[in-house]
Design a protein that fits this description.
Elements lengths: L3 H24 L13 E8 L7 H17 L4 E3 L17 H16 L5 E10 L2 E10 L2 E7 L22 E5 L2 E7 L9 H7 L5 E6 L7 H16 L2 E6 L1 E4 L2 E4 L3 E3 L5 E4 L6 E8 L1 H9 L15 E5 L19 H19 L5 E4 L4 H14 L4 E5 L7 H14 L2 E4 L3 H11 L10 H22 L2 E2 L5 H6 L20 H15 L6 H5 L19 H13 L4 H5 L5 H13 L1 H5 L28
Parallel strand pairs: 1-2, 2-3, 6-15, 7-8, 8-9, 16-17, 16-19, 17-18
Antiparallel strand pairs: 1-14, 3-4, 4-5, 6-7, 9-12, 10-11, 12-13
Helix pairs in contact: 2-3, 7-8, 7-13, 8-9, 8-13, 10-11, 15-17
Protein backbone atom coordinates (compact mmCIF):
# COMPACT_ATOMS: atom_id res chain seq x y z
CA UNK A 1 0.00 0.00 0.00
CA UNK A 2 1.28 3.42 -0.99
CA UNK A 3 1.91 5.59 2.05
CA UNK A 4 -0.08 8.81 2.56
CA UNK A 5 2.89 11.15 1.90
CA UNK A 6 3.75 9.49 -1.42
CA UNK A 7 0.09 9.69 -2.48
CA UNK A 8 0.02 13.46 -1.89
CA UNK A 9 3.22 13.95 -3.90
CA UNK A 10 1.71 12.19 -6.90
CA UNK A 11 -1.52 14.25 -6.68
CA UNK A 12 0.49 17.48 -6.40
CA UNK A 13 2.63 16.55 -9.45
CA UNK A 14 -0.45 15.81 -11.49
CA UNK A 15 -1.97 19.17 -10.53
CA UNK A 16 1.18 21.01 -11.65
CA UNK A 17 1.10 19.21 -14.99
CA UNK A 18 -2.56 20.08 -15.45
CA UNK A 19 -1.93 23.77 -14.66
CA UNK A 20 0.92 23.88 -17.17
CA UNK A 21 -1.34 22.51 -19.91
CA UNK A 22 -3.99 25.10 -18.99
CA UNK A 23 -1.51 27.98 -19.08
CA UNK A 24 -0.13 26.79 -22.44
CA UNK A 25 -3.67 26.70 -23.82
CA UNK A 26 -4.45 30.24 -22.56
CA UNK A 27 -1.28 31.88 -23.84
CA UNK A 28 -1.42 30.09 -27.20
CA UNK A 29 -4.71 31.93 -27.94
CA UNK A 30 -4.94 35.52 -29.24
CA UNK A 31 -4.64 37.97 -26.28
CA UNK A 32 -7.92 39.40 -24.93
CA UNK A 33 -7.65 41.85 -22.04
CA UNK A 34 -9.78 40.99 -19.02
CA UNK A 35 -12.55 43.57 -18.48
CA UNK A 36 -13.30 44.57 -14.89
CA UNK A 37 -16.82 45.95 -14.82
CA UNK A 38 -17.14 49.14 -12.74
CA UNK A 39 -20.56 50.74 -13.03
CA UNK A 40 -20.34 54.47 -12.30
CA UNK A 41 -23.08 56.13 -14.35
CA UNK A 42 -26.78 56.32 -13.62
CA UNK A 43 -29.56 58.14 -15.46
CA UNK A 44 -32.02 59.77 -13.09
CA UNK A 45 -35.24 61.67 -13.66
CA UNK A 46 -36.43 64.35 -11.24
CA UNK A 47 -40.18 64.73 -11.72
CA UNK A 48 -40.89 68.37 -10.92
CA UNK A 49 -44.67 68.03 -11.12
CA UNK A 50 -47.70 70.07 -10.02
CA UNK A 51 -49.90 67.97 -7.74
CA UNK A 52 -53.22 68.91 -6.16
CA UNK A 53 -53.97 68.32 -2.49
CA UNK A 54 -56.56 65.58 -2.08
CA UNK A 55 -56.78 64.75 -5.80
CA UNK A 56 -55.57 61.18 -5.36
CA UNK A 57 -56.77 59.98 -8.75
CA UNK A 58 -55.45 63.02 -10.60
CA UNK A 59 -52.08 62.78 -8.87
CA UNK A 60 -51.96 59.06 -9.69
CA UNK A 61 -52.53 59.73 -13.40
CA UNK A 62 -49.81 62.38 -13.44
CA UNK A 63 -47.35 60.06 -11.68
CA UNK A 64 -48.02 57.20 -14.10
CA UNK A 65 -47.64 59.43 -17.17
CA UNK A 66 -44.35 60.74 -15.86
CA UNK A 67 -43.17 57.25 -14.92
CA UNK A 68 -43.82 56.04 -18.46
CA UNK A 69 -41.84 58.95 -19.90
CA UNK A 70 -38.90 58.25 -17.59
CA UNK A 71 -38.98 54.59 -18.59
CA UNK A 72 -39.07 55.50 -22.28
CA UNK A 73 -36.01 57.70 -21.70
CA UNK A 74 -34.24 54.62 -20.25
CA UNK A 75 -33.81 56.12 -16.80
CA UNK A 76 -32.59 53.92 -13.96
CA UNK A 77 -34.45 55.93 -11.32
CA UNK A 78 -37.29 58.46 -11.20
CA UNK A 79 -38.07 60.57 -8.13
CA UNK A 80 -41.28 62.47 -7.31
CA UNK A 81 -41.73 65.33 -4.81
CA UNK A 82 -42.62 65.16 -1.14
CA UNK A 83 -46.08 63.72 -0.40
CA UNK A 84 -46.67 63.27 -4.11
CA UNK A 85 -49.79 61.18 -3.74
CA UNK A 86 -51.63 63.37 -1.22
CA UNK A 87 -50.37 66.73 -2.43
CA UNK A 88 -48.61 69.14 -0.08
CA UNK A 89 -49.55 70.22 2.51
CA UNK A 90 -52.50 67.87 3.14
CA UNK A 91 -53.02 69.37 6.61
CA UNK A 92 -55.99 67.91 8.52
CA UNK A 93 -56.92 65.59 5.66
CA UNK A 94 -54.37 63.17 7.13
CA UNK A 95 -56.47 62.98 10.30
CA UNK A 96 -59.20 61.24 8.29
CA UNK A 97 -58.55 57.52 8.40
CA UNK A 98 -60.31 56.94 5.08
CA UNK A 99 -57.98 59.42 3.40
CA UNK A 100 -54.93 57.54 4.67
CA UNK A 101 -56.32 54.23 3.49
CA UNK A 102 -57.25 55.62 0.07
CA UNK A 103 -53.80 57.09 -0.59
CA UNK A 104 -52.19 53.77 0.45
CA UNK A 105 -54.30 52.06 -2.22
CA UNK A 106 -53.00 54.57 -4.75
CA UNK A 107 -49.44 53.75 -3.69
CA UNK A 108 -50.09 50.05 -4.30
CA UNK A 109 -51.57 50.87 -7.71
CA UNK A 110 -48.47 52.87 -8.61
CA UNK A 111 -46.17 50.07 -7.45
CA UNK A 112 -47.99 47.65 -9.73
CA UNK A 113 -47.04 49.87 -12.70
CA UNK A 114 -43.33 49.98 -11.87
CA UNK A 115 -40.98 47.50 -13.57
CA UNK A 116 -37.24 47.43 -12.91
CA UNK A 117 -36.89 51.21 -12.91
CA UNK A 118 -36.49 52.42 -9.32
CA UNK A 119 -39.24 54.85 -8.33
CA UNK A 120 -39.31 57.15 -5.28
CA UNK A 121 -42.78 58.43 -4.35
CA UNK A 122 -43.91 60.56 -1.40
CA UNK A 123 -46.89 59.39 0.66
CA UNK A 124 -48.20 59.14 4.24
CA UNK A 125 -47.23 55.91 5.96
CA UNK A 126 -49.04 54.58 9.01
CA UNK A 127 -47.50 52.32 11.62
CA UNK A 128 -49.11 51.49 14.96
CA UNK A 129 -51.61 54.34 14.42
CA UNK A 130 -48.72 56.77 13.98
CA UNK A 131 -48.39 58.78 10.79
CA UNK A 132 -45.12 59.46 8.97
CA UNK A 133 -44.23 61.78 6.10
CA UNK A 134 -42.64 59.08 3.94
CA UNK A 135 -40.92 58.09 0.73
CA UNK A 136 -41.61 54.69 -0.82
CA UNK A 137 -38.96 52.94 -2.89
CA UNK A 138 -40.80 51.00 -5.62
CA UNK A 139 -39.48 48.41 -8.08
CA UNK A 140 -40.77 45.36 -9.94
CA UNK A 141 -44.29 45.76 -8.61
CA UNK A 142 -43.24 45.89 -4.95
CA UNK A 143 -42.56 48.38 -2.19
CA UNK A 144 -38.89 47.61 -1.57
CA UNK A 145 -38.37 50.10 1.26
CA UNK A 146 -40.07 52.96 3.10
CA UNK A 147 -38.21 55.92 4.54
CA UNK A 148 -39.77 58.08 7.27
CA UNK A 149 -38.83 61.76 7.30
CA UNK A 150 -36.66 62.45 10.32
CA UNK A 151 -36.41 66.24 10.55
CA UNK A 152 -39.93 67.68 10.84
CA UNK A 153 -40.26 71.46 10.30
CA UNK A 154 -42.49 73.23 12.79
CA UNK A 155 -42.07 76.93 12.04
CA UNK A 156 -43.42 79.56 9.63
CA UNK A 157 -46.07 77.84 7.44
CA UNK A 158 -44.98 74.37 8.56
CA UNK A 159 -46.61 72.43 11.38
CA UNK A 160 -45.62 68.86 10.56
CA UNK A 161 -45.28 67.88 14.24
CA UNK A 162 -49.06 68.31 14.47
CA UNK A 163 -49.49 65.38 12.10
CA UNK A 164 -46.37 63.24 11.85
CA UNK A 165 -43.92 61.34 14.02
CA UNK A 166 -40.24 61.59 13.16
CA UNK A 167 -38.40 58.70 11.55
CA UNK A 168 -35.50 57.05 13.32
CA UNK A 169 -32.95 55.90 10.75
CA UNK A 170 -31.51 57.26 7.48
CA UNK A 171 -31.90 55.12 4.36
CA UNK A 172 -29.34 54.30 1.67
CA UNK A 173 -30.23 52.22 -1.38
CA UNK A 174 -27.71 50.48 -3.60
CA UNK A 175 -28.79 50.65 -7.23
CA UNK A 176 -26.44 48.81 -9.58
CA UNK A 177 -23.78 49.23 -6.86
CA UNK A 178 -24.26 53.01 -6.80
CA UNK A 179 -25.16 54.18 -3.30
CA UNK A 180 -28.04 56.69 -3.00
CA UNK A 181 -29.25 58.33 0.19
CA UNK A 182 -33.01 59.02 0.24
CA UNK A 183 -34.27 61.97 2.28
CA UNK A 184 -37.22 64.35 2.44
CA UNK A 185 -37.07 68.16 2.32
CA UNK A 186 -36.06 69.40 5.81
CA UNK A 187 -33.74 66.39 6.26
CA UNK A 188 -31.17 68.00 3.99
CA UNK A 189 -31.42 71.47 5.59
CA UNK A 190 -30.34 70.32 9.05
CA UNK A 191 -26.56 70.14 9.64
CA UNK A 192 -24.82 66.97 10.85
CA UNK A 193 -27.97 64.90 10.49
CA UNK A 194 -29.45 62.71 7.76
CA UNK A 195 -27.32 63.64 4.73
CA UNK A 196 -24.01 63.47 6.59
CA UNK A 197 -24.91 60.09 8.12
CA UNK A 198 -25.83 58.75 4.68
CA UNK A 199 -22.47 59.85 3.29
CA UNK A 200 -20.28 58.71 6.21
CA UNK A 201 -22.04 55.60 7.48
CA UNK A 202 -23.90 54.56 4.35
CA UNK A 203 -21.29 55.57 1.78
CA UNK A 204 -23.94 57.46 -0.22
CA UNK A 205 -22.53 58.87 -3.43
CA UNK A 206 -25.77 60.58 -4.43
CA UNK A 207 -27.97 62.43 -1.93
CA UNK A 208 -31.50 62.34 -3.37
CA UNK A 209 -33.92 64.69 -1.63
CA UNK A 210 -37.62 64.89 -2.50
CA UNK A 211 -39.05 68.20 -1.41
CA UNK A 212 -42.00 70.58 -1.14
CA UNK A 213 -40.22 73.84 -0.45
CA UNK A 214 -42.46 76.90 -0.88
CA UNK A 215 -41.35 80.06 -2.62
CA UNK A 216 -40.22 83.21 -0.89
CA UNK A 217 -38.21 86.08 -2.33
CA UNK A 218 -34.55 85.06 -2.46
CA UNK A 219 -35.18 81.52 -1.25
CA UNK A 220 -34.01 79.97 -4.52
CA UNK A 221 -30.55 81.41 -3.97
CA UNK A 222 -30.60 80.27 -0.35
CA UNK A 223 -31.36 76.72 -1.49
CA UNK A 224 -28.52 76.69 -3.99
CA UNK A 225 -26.01 77.93 -1.41
CA UNK A 226 -27.15 75.41 1.20
CA UNK A 227 -27.09 72.47 -1.20
CA UNK A 228 -23.71 73.50 -2.58
CA UNK A 229 -22.29 73.45 0.93
CA UNK A 230 -23.96 70.09 1.59
CA UNK A 231 -22.44 68.62 -1.59
CA UNK A 232 -18.98 69.94 -0.73
CA UNK A 233 -19.19 68.75 2.86
CA UNK A 234 -20.25 65.21 1.95
CA UNK A 235 -18.31 65.01 -1.33
CA UNK A 236 -21.53 63.68 -2.88
CA UNK A 237 -23.78 64.57 -5.80
CA UNK A 238 -26.95 66.27 -4.56
CA UNK A 239 -30.13 65.62 -6.56
CA UNK A 240 -32.93 67.81 -5.23
CA UNK A 241 -36.47 67.37 -6.59
CA UNK A 242 -38.86 70.19 -5.65
CA UNK A 243 -42.62 70.46 -6.03
CA UNK A 244 -44.12 73.09 -8.33
CA UNK A 245 -47.58 74.67 -8.19
CA UNK A 246 -49.94 76.79 -6.13
CA UNK A 247 -51.74 75.56 -3.01
CA UNK A 248 -53.94 78.14 -1.28
CA UNK A 249 -51.47 80.83 -0.13
CA UNK A 250 -48.35 78.82 -0.92
CA UNK A 251 -46.51 78.65 -4.21
CA UNK A 252 -43.92 75.96 -4.89
CA UNK A 253 -41.44 77.21 -7.43
CA UNK A 254 -39.74 74.02 -8.62
CA UNK A 255 -36.18 74.98 -9.56
CA UNK A 256 -34.98 71.46 -8.76
CA UNK A 257 -31.21 71.08 -8.61
CA UNK A 258 -28.38 68.71 -9.41
CA UNK A 259 -25.11 69.74 -7.81
CA UNK A 260 -21.72 68.07 -8.22
CA UNK A 261 -19.53 66.92 -5.31
CA UNK A 262 -17.42 70.06 -5.62
CA UNK A 263 -20.49 72.31 -5.26
CA UNK A 264 -20.87 73.16 -8.95
CA UNK A 265 -24.47 73.47 -10.16
CA UNK A 266 -24.88 70.96 -12.97
CA UNK A 267 -28.58 71.43 -13.63
CA UNK A 268 -31.47 73.59 -12.49
CA UNK A 269 -35.12 72.92 -13.21
CA UNK A 270 -37.54 75.47 -14.58
CA UNK A 271 -39.03 78.10 -12.28
CA UNK A 272 -42.81 77.98 -11.76
CA UNK A 273 -43.34 75.26 -14.40
CA UNK A 274 -43.46 71.49 -14.59
CA UNK A 275 -40.43 69.70 -15.97
CA UNK A 276 -39.02 66.19 -16.11
CA UNK A 277 -35.32 66.73 -15.50
CA UNK A 278 -33.35 63.82 -16.95
CA UNK A 279 -29.64 63.78 -16.22
CA UNK A 280 -26.80 61.27 -16.36
CA UNK A 281 -24.77 61.22 -13.17
CA UNK A 282 -21.25 59.78 -13.05
CA UNK A 283 -20.32 58.89 -9.48
CA UNK A 284 -16.71 58.47 -10.57
CA UNK A 285 -16.52 62.20 -9.79
CA UNK A 286 -17.50 61.40 -6.22
CA UNK A 287 -15.07 58.50 -5.90
CA UNK A 288 -12.19 60.58 -7.23
CA UNK A 289 -12.98 63.45 -4.89
CA UNK A 290 -13.23 61.21 -1.86
CA UNK A 291 -9.78 59.83 -2.59
CA UNK A 292 -8.31 63.31 -2.31
CA UNK A 293 -10.62 65.12 0.14
CA UNK A 294 -11.28 64.11 3.72
CA UNK A 295 -14.83 64.51 4.92
CA UNK A 296 -14.76 67.39 7.42
CA UNK A 297 -16.61 65.55 10.16
CA UNK A 298 -16.39 62.34 12.16
CA UNK A 299 -18.95 59.81 13.31
CA UNK A 300 -18.99 61.43 16.73
CA UNK A 301 -20.20 64.70 15.15
CA UNK A 302 -23.36 63.18 13.74
CA UNK A 303 -26.84 62.63 15.08
CA UNK A 304 -26.98 59.09 13.64
CA UNK A 305 -24.52 56.22 13.87
CA UNK A 306 -25.84 53.95 11.12
CA UNK A 307 -28.11 53.72 8.08
CA UNK A 308 -30.59 51.19 6.79
CA UNK A 309 -29.35 49.61 3.53
CA UNK A 310 -31.47 48.21 0.70
CA UNK A 311 -29.99 46.64 -2.46
CA UNK A 312 -31.67 47.05 -5.84
CA UNK A 313 -30.64 46.41 -9.43
CA UNK A 314 -31.90 47.45 -12.84
CA UNK A 315 -31.10 46.20 -16.30
CA UNK A 316 -28.12 47.75 -18.03
CA UNK A 317 -29.01 50.88 -19.95
CA UNK A 318 -26.69 53.02 -21.97
CA UNK A 319 -26.28 56.36 -20.20
CA UNK A 320 -25.06 59.45 -22.00
CA UNK A 321 -22.30 61.86 -21.18
CA UNK A 322 -23.16 63.97 -18.12
CA UNK A 323 -23.87 67.57 -19.09
CA UNK A 324 -23.75 70.82 -17.20
CA UNK A 325 -26.44 73.39 -18.00
CA UNK A 326 -26.00 76.90 -16.64
CA UNK A 327 -29.12 78.07 -14.78
CA UNK A 328 -30.86 81.26 -15.87
CA UNK A 329 -30.87 84.05 -13.29
CA UNK A 330 -34.17 85.85 -12.65
CA UNK A 331 -34.59 89.39 -11.41
CA UNK A 332 -36.48 90.06 -8.19
CA UNK A 333 -39.46 91.36 -10.17
CA UNK A 334 -39.46 88.31 -12.44
CA UNK A 335 -39.48 85.97 -9.42
CA UNK A 336 -42.39 87.75 -7.76
CA UNK A 337 -44.41 88.09 -10.97
CA UNK A 338 -43.89 84.42 -11.81
CA UNK A 339 -44.94 83.34 -8.32
CA UNK A 340 -48.15 85.39 -8.43
CA UNK A 341 -49.04 84.14 -11.91
CA UNK A 342 -48.68 80.50 -10.84
CA UNK A 343 -50.45 81.01 -7.52
CA UNK A 344 -53.38 82.82 -9.13
CA UNK A 345 -53.77 80.36 -12.00
CA UNK A 346 -53.69 77.30 -9.76
CA UNK A 347 -56.03 78.79 -7.16
CA UNK A 348 -58.60 79.58 -9.86
CA UNK A 349 -58.35 76.29 -11.75
CA UNK A 350 -57.85 73.92 -8.82
CA UNK A 351 -60.97 75.35 -7.18
CA UNK A 352 -63.09 74.76 -10.26
CA UNK A 353 -63.27 78.29 -11.73
CA UNK A 354 -62.47 79.48 -15.23
CA UNK A 355 -63.09 83.22 -15.05
CA UNK A 356 -62.52 86.02 -12.55
CA UNK A 357 -64.21 89.35 -11.80
CA UNK A 358 -63.10 92.45 -9.88
CA UNK A 359 -63.49 96.20 -9.70
CA UNK A 360 -61.24 98.28 -11.93
CA UNK A 361 -60.81 101.68 -10.26
CA UNK A 362 -58.28 103.36 -12.48
CA UNK A 363 -55.66 102.95 -9.74
CA UNK A 364 -52.37 101.09 -9.88
CA UNK A 365 -53.39 98.09 -7.75
CA UNK A 366 -56.43 97.02 -9.75
CA UNK A 367 -54.50 97.73 -12.97
CA UNK A 368 -51.75 95.32 -11.93
CA UNK A 369 -54.31 92.70 -10.85
CA UNK A 370 -55.97 93.00 -14.28
CA UNK A 371 -52.62 92.49 -15.99
CA UNK A 372 -51.72 89.52 -13.80
CA UNK A 373 -55.12 87.93 -14.38
CA UNK A 374 -54.85 88.34 -18.15
CA UNK A 375 -51.37 86.80 -18.13
CA UNK A 376 -52.37 83.94 -15.81
CA UNK A 377 -55.77 83.01 -17.23
CA UNK A 378 -55.97 84.53 -20.69
CA UNK A 379 -57.77 87.84 -21.43
CA UNK A 380 -60.96 86.02 -22.41
CA UNK A 381 -61.36 84.84 -18.81
CA UNK A 382 -61.03 88.25 -17.15
CA UNK A 383 -64.05 90.45 -16.36
CA UNK A 384 -63.66 93.85 -14.75
CA UNK A 385 -66.15 96.48 -13.64
CA UNK A 386 -65.60 100.21 -13.35
CA UNK A 387 -68.06 101.62 -10.82
CA UNK A 388 -67.65 105.40 -10.64
CA UNK A 389 -69.38 107.55 -8.04
CA UNK A 390 -69.68 111.33 -7.86
CA UNK A 391 -66.21 111.38 -6.28
CA UNK A 392 -64.53 109.46 -9.09
CA UNK A 393 -62.39 111.44 -11.49
CA UNK A 394 -63.11 111.28 -15.20
CA UNK A 395 -59.53 110.21 -15.73
CA UNK A 396 -60.04 107.08 -13.65
CA UNK A 397 -62.77 105.84 -15.97
CA UNK A 398 -60.81 106.74 -19.11
CA UNK A 399 -57.69 105.03 -17.77
CA UNK A 400 -59.67 101.90 -16.89
CA UNK A 401 -61.14 101.71 -20.38
CA UNK A 402 -57.71 102.16 -21.97
CA UNK A 403 -56.19 99.42 -19.79
CA UNK A 404 -59.01 97.01 -20.64
CA UNK A 405 -58.47 97.67 -24.35
CA UNK A 406 -54.70 97.15 -24.01
CA UNK A 407 -55.22 93.82 -22.25
CA UNK A 408 -58.19 92.65 -24.33
CA UNK A 409 -60.30 91.95 -21.25
CA UNK A 410 -64.04 92.44 -20.78
CA UNK A 411 -65.03 95.81 -19.33
CA UNK A 412 -68.37 96.63 -17.65
CA UNK A 413 -69.27 100.23 -16.74
CA UNK A 414 -71.82 100.62 -13.91
CA UNK A 415 -72.23 103.96 -12.13
CA UNK A 416 -73.06 103.70 -8.44
CA UNK A 417 -73.96 107.39 -8.01
CA UNK A 418 -77.73 106.84 -7.81
CA UNK A 419 -77.38 103.80 -5.54
CA UNK A 420 -75.07 105.74 -3.22
CA UNK A 421 -77.47 108.71 -3.10
CA UNK A 422 -80.31 106.36 -2.20
CA UNK A 423 -78.26 104.89 0.66
CA UNK A 424 -77.59 108.40 2.01
CA UNK A 425 -81.29 109.23 1.85
CA UNK A 426 -82.12 106.01 3.66
CA UNK A 427 -79.66 106.78 6.46
CA UNK A 428 -80.21 110.53 6.59
CA UNK A 429 -82.46 110.51 9.65
CA UNK A 430 -80.22 108.13 11.57
CA UNK A 431 -77.10 110.14 10.71
CA UNK A 432 -78.70 113.53 11.47
CA UNK A 433 -76.48 115.89 13.44
CA UNK A 434 -73.24 114.11 12.55
CA UNK A 435 -70.65 115.25 10.05
CA UNK A 436 -69.93 112.98 7.05
CA UNK A 437 -67.02 110.70 7.80
CA UNK A 438 -65.67 107.20 7.09
CA UNK A 439 -69.20 105.74 7.32
CA UNK A 440 -70.31 107.54 4.16
CA UNK A 441 -66.99 106.87 2.44
CA UNK A 442 -67.11 103.13 3.07
CA UNK A 443 -70.68 102.85 1.80
CA UNK A 444 -69.29 103.35 -1.70
CA UNK A 445 -66.75 100.56 -1.31
CA UNK A 446 -69.43 98.24 0.04
CA UNK A 447 -71.81 99.00 -2.80
CA UNK A 448 -69.03 98.07 -5.22
CA UNK A 449 -68.29 94.89 -3.27
CA UNK A 450 -71.97 93.91 -3.46
CA UNK A 451 -72.02 94.36 -7.24
CA UNK A 452 -68.86 92.28 -7.66
CA UNK A 453 -70.40 89.49 -5.58
CA UNK A 454 -73.68 89.65 -7.51
CA UNK A 455 -71.83 89.04 -10.79
CA UNK A 456 -69.79 86.32 -9.15
CA UNK A 457 -72.93 84.53 -7.98
CA UNK A 458 -74.76 84.95 -11.28
CA UNK A 459 -71.98 83.87 -13.64
CA UNK A 460 -69.74 81.70 -11.47
CA UNK A 461 -66.76 84.06 -11.69
CA UNK A 462 -64.20 84.03 -8.88
CA UNK A 463 -64.02 87.54 -7.34
CA UNK A 464 -60.54 88.97 -6.83
CA UNK A 465 -59.61 91.46 -4.14
CA UNK A 466 -57.14 94.04 -5.44
CA UNK A 467 -55.60 95.45 -2.24
CA UNK A 468 -51.88 95.30 -1.45
CA UNK A 469 -49.88 94.43 1.68
CA UNK A 470 -49.20 98.05 2.64
CA UNK A 471 -52.92 98.86 2.80
CA UNK A 472 -53.80 95.61 4.53
CA UNK A 473 -51.09 96.18 7.12
CA UNK A 474 -52.50 99.48 8.35
CA UNK A 475 -56.17 98.78 7.62
CA UNK A 476 -56.41 101.24 4.74
CA UNK A 477 -59.11 99.10 3.14
CA UNK A 478 -62.81 98.53 3.65
CA UNK A 479 -63.97 95.28 5.17
CA UNK A 480 -66.95 93.93 3.18
CA UNK A 481 -66.04 96.51 0.54
CA UNK A 482 -62.83 96.52 -1.51
CA UNK A 483 -61.67 93.58 0.63
CA UNK A 484 -64.41 91.43 -0.91
CA UNK A 485 -62.91 88.57 -2.90
CA UNK A 486 -62.11 84.90 -3.05
CA UNK A 487 -58.40 85.50 -3.71
CA UNK A 488 -56.04 88.47 -3.28
CA UNK A 489 -53.10 88.30 -5.71
CA UNK A 490 -51.33 91.32 -4.15
CA UNK A 491 -51.91 90.39 -0.49
CA UNK A 492 -48.17 90.01 0.17
CA UNK A 493 -46.99 92.72 -2.26
CA UNK A 494 -46.14 96.18 -0.92
CA UNK A 495 -47.22 99.34 -2.70
CA UNK A 496 -43.67 100.16 -3.73
CA UNK A 497 -43.30 96.68 -5.26
CA UNK A 498 -46.63 97.14 -7.07
CA UNK A 499 -45.05 100.04 -8.95
CA UNK A 500 -41.89 98.06 -9.70
CA UNK A 501 -43.87 95.12 -11.08
CA UNK A 502 -46.02 97.43 -13.21
CA UNK A 503 -43.02 99.20 -14.72
CA UNK A 504 -41.24 95.89 -15.32
CA UNK A 505 -44.31 94.46 -17.10
CA UNK A 506 -44.47 97.52 -19.32
CA UNK A 507 -40.78 97.13 -20.15
CA UNK A 508 -41.42 93.51 -21.19
CA UNK A 509 -44.42 94.58 -23.30
CA UNK A 510 -42.37 97.28 -25.00
CA UNK A 511 -45.07 99.93 -24.49
CA UNK A 512 -47.30 101.30 -21.74
CA UNK A 513 -49.49 98.24 -21.38
CA UNK A 514 -50.51 99.74 -18.05
CA UNK A 515 -51.15 103.37 -19.07
CA UNK A 516 -48.52 105.81 -17.83
CA UNK A 517 -51.27 108.02 -16.37
CA UNK A 518 -52.25 105.20 -13.98
CA UNK A 519 -48.66 104.74 -12.81
CA UNK A 520 -47.98 108.46 -12.37
CA UNK A 521 -51.21 109.61 -10.70
CA UNK A 522 -51.24 110.08 -6.91
CA UNK A 523 -52.85 107.03 -5.23
CA UNK A 524 -56.41 107.68 -4.06
CA UNK A 525 -59.39 105.67 -2.87
CA UNK A 526 -61.65 108.41 -4.35
CA UNK A 527 -64.22 108.08 -1.60
CA UNK A 528 -64.37 111.84 -0.88
CA UNK A 529 -63.48 114.98 -2.87
CA UNK A 530 -59.74 115.40 -3.60
CA UNK A 531 -58.82 112.43 -1.42
CA UNK A 532 -55.21 111.20 -1.57
CA UNK A 533 -53.66 108.21 0.22
CA UNK A 534 -50.87 110.43 1.53
CA UNK A 535 -53.47 112.47 3.47
CA UNK A 536 -53.92 109.47 5.77
CA UNK A 537 -50.65 107.58 5.44
CA UNK A 538 -46.91 108.32 5.35
CA UNK A 539 -45.30 108.26 1.89
CA UNK A 540 -45.35 104.68 0.67
CA UNK A 541 -41.57 104.30 0.48
CA UNK A 542 -41.31 105.28 4.15
CA UNK A 543 -44.38 103.26 5.16
CA UNK A 544 -43.13 100.11 3.45
CA UNK A 545 -39.70 100.39 5.02
CA UNK A 546 -41.26 100.68 8.51
CA UNK A 547 -43.67 97.81 7.81
CA UNK A 548 -40.83 95.54 6.74
CA UNK A 549 -39.07 96.17 10.05
CA UNK A 550 -42.20 95.96 12.24
CA UNK A 551 -44.09 93.11 10.52
CA UNK A 552 -41.56 90.97 8.68
CA UNK A 553 -38.55 91.43 10.95
CA UNK A 554 -40.63 91.77 14.17
CA UNK A 555 -38.66 94.75 15.45
CA UNK A 556 -40.06 97.00 18.15
CA UNK A 557 -40.82 100.71 17.83
CA UNK A 558 -37.74 101.84 19.74
CA UNK A 559 -35.49 99.70 17.53
CA UNK A 560 -37.03 101.14 14.36
CA UNK A 561 -36.79 104.72 15.64
CA UNK A 562 -33.11 104.11 16.42
CA UNK A 563 -32.60 103.44 12.72
CA UNK A 564 -33.55 107.03 11.85
CA UNK A 565 -37.32 106.98 11.44
CA UNK A 566 -39.51 109.57 13.15
CA UNK A 567 -40.91 108.31 16.45
CA UNK A 568 -44.38 109.74 15.83
CA UNK A 569 -44.63 108.04 12.43
CA UNK A 570 -43.38 104.67 13.66
CA UNK A 571 -45.73 104.71 16.67
CA UNK A 572 -48.68 105.52 14.42
CA UNK A 573 -47.87 102.80 11.92
CA UNK A 574 -47.38 100.21 14.68
CA UNK A 575 -50.70 101.18 16.25
CA UNK A 576 -52.52 100.84 12.93
CA UNK A 577 -50.97 97.41 12.29
CA UNK A 578 -52.02 96.19 15.74
CA UNK A 579 -55.56 97.59 15.53
CA UNK A 580 -56.36 95.99 12.19
CA UNK A 581 -55.61 92.35 12.94
CA UNK A 582 -59.37 91.66 12.87
CA UNK A 583 -59.57 92.87 9.27
CA UNK A 584 -56.66 90.74 8.11
CA UNK A 585 -58.15 87.66 9.75
CA UNK A 586 -61.18 88.08 7.46
CA UNK A 587 -59.21 88.90 4.31
CA UNK A 588 -59.11 86.63 1.28
CA UNK A 589 -56.11 84.31 0.93
CA UNK A 590 -53.33 85.51 -1.33
CA UNK A 591 -49.96 84.46 -2.71
CA UNK A 592 -47.15 84.35 -0.15
CA UNK A 593 -43.98 85.87 -1.57
CA UNK A 594 -42.11 87.18 1.49
CA UNK A 595 -40.55 85.26 4.35
CA UNK A 596 -43.33 86.48 6.65
CA UNK A 597 -46.75 86.98 5.10
CA UNK A 598 -50.12 87.66 6.71
CA UNK A 599 -51.93 84.35 7.17
CA UNK A 600 -50.36 81.08 8.34
CA UNK A 601 -47.01 82.82 8.73
CA UNK A 602 -48.20 85.35 11.30
CA UNK A 603 -50.61 84.38 14.07
CA UNK A 604 -51.23 87.40 16.27
CA UNK A 605 -54.30 87.35 18.54
CA UNK A 606 -57.11 89.73 17.64
CA UNK A 607 -57.97 90.36 21.29
CA UNK A 608 -54.59 91.59 22.47
CA UNK A 609 -53.76 94.21 25.10
CA UNK A 610 -49.99 94.04 24.78
CA UNK A 611 -48.65 97.49 24.02
CA UNK A 612 -44.95 96.81 24.44
CA UNK A 613 -42.83 98.91 22.15
Amino acid sequence: MMNFRRQNEIVFSCQIALNCVTLFTIFSQPFKPIKIKMNTTIRIALAQINTTVGDLDGNYEKIIRTLKTARAERCHLVAFPELTITGYPPEDLVLRRQFIQDQKKILSAIAAQVDDIACIVGFVDESAETLHNSAAVLQNGDIKAVYHKIELPNYSVFDEERYFAAGEKPLVISLNDILIGISICEDIWIPDSVAEAQALHGGAEILLNISASPFAVGKGRDRIELLQKKAEKTAAIVAYDNLVGGQDELVFDGQSLIIGPDGEVWRQGAAFAEELIIHDLDVATVRRRRRTVRLPYAASDLKFRSCERVKLATEERAAGVPQKITPVEMTLEEEIYGAIILGLRDYVHKNGFQQVVFGLSGGIDSALVATLAADALGPQNVNCITMPSQHSSAGSVVDSIQLAENLGIKMINLSITDIYRRYLELLQELFAGREPDVAEENLQARIRGTIVMALSNKFGWLPLATGNKSELSVGYCTIYGDMVGGFAPLKDVTKTMVYKLSNDRNAIAGFDLIPRSIIEKAPSAELRPNQKDQDSLPPYDELDAILELYVEKRQGVSSIVAQGYRAETVQRVARLVDLNEYKRRQAAPGVKITHLAFGKDRRVPITNHYKGR
